[in-house]
Write a structure and sequence with these properties.
The protein is of the alpha/beta class. The chain has helices at 2-11, 24-38, 50-59, 61-69, 94-104, 106-115, 134-139, 152-159, 161-166, 210-219, 232-245, 255-263, 280-286, 306-319, 336-346, 358-363, 376-385, 398-408, 421-434, 436-453, 459-473, and strands at residues 15-19, 43-49, 73-78, 122-126, 143-148, 225-228, 249-251, 293-297, 322-326, 350-353, 367-372, 389-391, 412-414. It has a 7-stranded parallel sheet with strand order 3-2-1-4-5-6-7, sandwiched between helices. It has a 6-stranded parallel sheet with strand order 10-9-8-11-12-13, with helices on both faces. It starts with a helix and ends with a helix. The structure holds uridine-5'-diphosphate (UDP). Uridine-5'-diphosphate (UDP) binds next to helix 2, helix 16 and helix 17.
Length: 476
């Protein structure tokens, strides 16, 4: 009888396949969504490339224990068709991995869809994969949801490309053209200069050309619904534009906060670090005064030249503020000696580490500002904690995110396209001394709105309820 009951229960319980782009920011946010859905008692299959999964297991004890907490949650892996030795990794060359998965991944996905029990009723696919599973979904009667892990403003900028071409506002005509104002992007008229457009508008060195991105973005039109990791109060003028094209749009972010709020705890998180976490920084932070430290991190992919490291280091030293700086292994190619030297000279006021538990760091009372590359996850994590930012964007949506941080939300300063010790020093002082109150006030206001959005009857909370309802309805 018990088995009968279980069978009946399984019948009403959807099976969701979730497939993120194999890179840190994407895996982080899609795993948060996966856990939120697992808390709703759904069957979850989370698909990683072998390369990513090996790193997840290596650097996060919590991954192995996951199936104990959520018996209906499983990880599956797919090869990415690159040799271990010559692997492009998950940084600048991620375009190569997306390409190889797009070219060779379909048979693996088909096998999975055919063999999974209970039957997969819904796929949540990272939108960067474009039409990878569109045909399979319709062949097997599976509902397809696209998830874009970038900001809504960036997603919208990609959708605006045909309009911008038509009005002759792009392509950008060289370096002298960078400060020209973009006028024909609805919802963000006169906000952007050419230099604030997503990086792929200016160059094509990552095997992710603008053409390809635009085509992939438009393939989301063929999905049954779209999820964005943002919240109404943050990007509402943009979201109303996107809704004109995507009637079934679920904005359910900030997802990490949504999950913490649902679980009412921050201690038993499923971690998804792709690097070895160094927790020594937490004890160091404990001994620093209130809001006295600037946290410096450029995410999981930004490479740095040694000249840039030196400029930023001098800027931080000259600002006379304390700092906690993440420099990933191999981030500055072949410069271990230089880093050791800086670390040695930094000791009294600064700590340089390889990878930190960033959500915890940003929530620490000693943190007063964040010098960031403006990756979307980092931006949201900073918003939630009410930490003002200095933005030094590297690529993708980071250029437009940093513009919104400085000009629209007014919760920080934009340092894009500049790397100069004097500028760093001045900006640190503006954020932490001269204009401290002003930035803290707007950052705290945005933080409150983000908390409201994921609390009962907040917009992200309500949208998530609607999403659950929709996913449940996909079960035959
Ligand atoms: N992160 C972390 N420890 C670090 C640096 C970053 O846990 O030392 C996390 C950070 O919290 C964020 C993610 O890595 O969730 C980076 O994603 P983001 O979208 O900001 O940038 P990306 O790495 O994709 O460029």
């Amino acid at each position: 009888e018990k088995t009968m009951e279980r069978k009946a229960e399984e019948k009403t319980c959807p099976h969701v396949l979730i497939f993120p782009c194999p890179a840190q920011g994407h895996v982080n946010s899609m795993l948060k969504l996966a856990e939120l859905l697992a808390l709703q008692n759904m069957n979850i299959t989370f698909l990683n490339t072998e390369y990513i999964h090996n790193r997840l297991i290596r650097f996060n004890d919590s991954i192995q224990a996951l199936s104990l907490t959520y018996p209906k949650f499983q990880f599956k892996t797919i090869p990415d068709f690159h040799d271990e030795e010559k692997h492009p990794g998950f940084g600048e060359k991620i375009g190569d991995v997306i390409m190889s998965l797009s070219l060779n991944g379909k048979p693996y996905l088909r096998d999975m869809i055919v063999s999974e029990v209970p039957k997969i009723s819904c796929i949540i696919l990272d939108g960067v994969f474009g039409d990878l599973v569109t045909d399979l979904a319709s062949e097997f009667g599976i509902q397809l949801i696209h998830f874009r892990t970038i900001s809504a403003c960036c997603f919208w900028a990609y959708l605006c490309v045909p309009k911008l071409l038509e009005s002759n506002e792009i392509p950008i005509r060289g370096d002298e053209d960078m400060d020209r104002i973009i006028r024909n992007a609805p919802g963000m008229e006169n906000v952007l200069r050419c230099r604030d457009l997503p990086s792929f508008f200016r160059e094509n060195k990552h095997n992710l050309s603008l053409d390809k991105l635009v085509v992939r973005t438009q393939q989301s039109f063929k999905a049954n619904a779209l999820i964005l990791n943002t919240f109404e109060d943050l990007e509402s003028p943009i979201l109303s534009q996107i809704r004109l094209h995507f009637p079934k749009l679920y904005t359910i972010g900030p997802l990490h906060h949504h999950l913490n709020n649902t679980k009412k705890t921050t201690t038993t998180l499923i971690n998804s670090n792709l690097f070895q976490v160094d927790r020594t920084c937490m004890t160091w932070l404990d001994s620093q005064p209130l809001k006295s430290v600037i946290y410096v991190s450029f995410g999981s992919t930004t490479p740095m030249k040694s000249e840039e490291v030196i400029e930023i280091w001098h800027g931080l030293m000259n600002s006379e503020k304390r700092f906690l700086w993440v420099i990933r292994p191999n981030m500055v190619q072949g410069k271990e000696v230089l880093l050791k030297e800086l670390e040695e000279k930094t000791k009294e006021r600064g700590l340089i580490v390889g990878w930190v538990p960033q959500e915890e760091v940003l929530a620490h009372k000693a943190i007063g500002a964040f010098l960031t590359h403006s990756g979307w996850n980092s931006t949201l994590e900073s918003v939630v904690c009410g930490v003002p930012m200095i933005c030094w964007p590297f690529f993708a949506d980071q250029q437009i995110n940093s513009r919104f941080v400085s000009e629209v939300w007014k919760i920080g300063l934009d340092m894009k396209d500049v790397c100069d010790r004097k500028v760093v020093e001045n900006m640190v002082n503006d954020l932490m001394v001269n204009r401290k109150e002003e930035f803290l006030k707007s950052a705290m206001e945005m933080s409150k709105l983000s908390c409201k959005s994921v609390s009962p009857s907040g917009s992200s909370y309500d949208n998530f309820q609607a999403l659950i309802w929709y996913i449940r309805s996909t079960n035959p």
